[in-house]
């Protein structure tokens, strides 16, 4: 008797779909890759052929040069032998997708990275009923419960208004987080120009080209201190303590990340204003998603695997960690 999902072969460097002869998010070049989203720990270059959403392919092109890409829109399916793959919104970043695999009557969802919070920069997560749900667990501990997004954005604007002769320098991951911070600021009425580090310009332009309105953005590289007083400046986290930041007007250092829940991480990064803003599901969202989808089995790809596996087992849901390698916590 065949075992549920025995046609899926999780290996350290990716998930291999045997009857389709394709890999999902492989960490090394392969002949055929299905890619869930554009973050570098999921989307590598060098594949002979790639299937992903048009937005993810555009991100890969921008980062790696032209890919041998095959676009698959949300809700569309592609056949690989007897396996059907359908791309469904994951709510993580622009173009992020879950991949529903159907074969011999079984339904397996590879969720990639996902979140359940509203995000003006990407399509919302869509729950899909399945037999096996393959999930991340980046914030898979009960201590991780993300606060309301609006409250964190209000902390940012309050600090700005209280210090009109300074600027607020926000560290934010270049793909997804930076654009989300900008869009959330706009949604709460912050219409002033926002200054951005040069490393963010290409991806911000890509988001805008795909219909995400980020408002007036200006390069921080060419602005002087006086121009940036009373404004928000956004840069990659690595630039917060870089010589580049010395050109800013007495910056209040902030960082937008789910890891800002951990006080020691904020202290280590020299963060004055921690903003708990994540593009991953928190503990409640992970467990609520599993309750909603009600799969027969849960496989955990990366993150805090043990706690989520234990939660499943106490509820009579078969679960196991996959111990995939190469997936980073990112600066979230």
Short description:
This protein has 332 residues and is an alpha/beta fold. The protein has helices at residues 54-64, 149-162, 177-187, 198-209, 225-228, 263-268, 283-293, 305-313, and strands spanning 8-11, 14-17, 22-24, 32-34, 49-52, 69-71, 77-80, 83-89, 97-103, 106-110, 132-137, 168-171, 194-196, 217-219, 232-235, 252-256, 273-275, 297-303, 318-321. The strands form 3 sheets. A 7-stranded mixed sheet has the order 7-8-9-10-11-18-19, covered by helices on one side.
Which key terms come to mind for this protein?
19 strands; 8 helices; single chain; globular; 25% strand; ligase
Describe the 3D structure.
The termini are far apart. This protein has 332 residues and is of the alpha/beta class. It is built from eight helices and 19 strands. It is globular. The chain has helices at 54-64, 149-162, 177-187, 198-209, 225-228, 263-268, 283-293, 305-313, and strands at 8-11, 14-17, 22-24, 32-34, 49-52, 69-71, 77-80, 83-89, 97-103, 106-110, 132-137, 168-171, 194-196, 217-219, 232-235, 252-256, 273-275, 297-303, 318-321. The longest helix has 14 residues, at 149-162.
């Amino acid at each position: 008797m065949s075992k549920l999902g025995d046609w899926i072969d999780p290996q350290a460097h990716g998930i291999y779909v045997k009857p389709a002869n394709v890999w999902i998010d492989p960490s090394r070049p392969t002949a055929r890759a299905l890619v869930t989203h554009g973050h570098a720990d999921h989307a590598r270059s060098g594949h002979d052929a790639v299937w992903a959403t048009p937005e993810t392919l555009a991100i890969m092109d921008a980062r790696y040069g032209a890919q041998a890409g095959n676009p698959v829109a949300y809700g569309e399916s592609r056949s690989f032998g007897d396996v059907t793959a359908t791309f469904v919104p994951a709510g993580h970043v622009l173009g992020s997708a879950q991949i529903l695999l159907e074969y011999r009557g079984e339904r397996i969802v590879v969720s990639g990275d996902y979140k359940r919070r509203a995000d003006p920069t990407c399509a919302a997560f869509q729950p899909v009923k399945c037999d096996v749900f393959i999930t991340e667990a980046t914030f898979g501990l009960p201590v991780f419960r993300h606060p309301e997004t609006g409250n964190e954005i209000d902390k940012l604007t309050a600090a700005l208004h209280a210090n009109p002769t300074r600027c607020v320098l926000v560290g934010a991951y270049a793909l997804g987080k930076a654009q989300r911070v900008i869009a959330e600021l706009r949604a709460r009425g912050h219409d002033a120009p926002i200054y951005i580090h040069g490393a963010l310009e290409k991806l911000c332009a890509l988001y805008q080209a795909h219909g995400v309105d980020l408002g007036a953005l200006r390069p921080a590289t060419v602005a002087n201190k006086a121009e940036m007083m009373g404004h928000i400046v956004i840069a990659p986290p690595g630039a917060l303590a870089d010589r580049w930041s010395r050109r800013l007007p007495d910056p209040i250092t902030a960082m937008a990340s789910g890891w800002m829940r951990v006080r020691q991480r904020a202290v280590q990064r020299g963060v004055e204003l921690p903003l708990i803003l994540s593009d991953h599901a928190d503990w409640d969202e992970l467990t609520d998603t599993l309750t909603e989808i009600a799969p027969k089995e849960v496989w955990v790809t990366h993150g805090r695997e043990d706690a989520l596996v234990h939660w499943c087992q106490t509820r009579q849901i078969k679960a196991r960690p996959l111990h995939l390698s190469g997936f980073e916590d990112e600066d979230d």
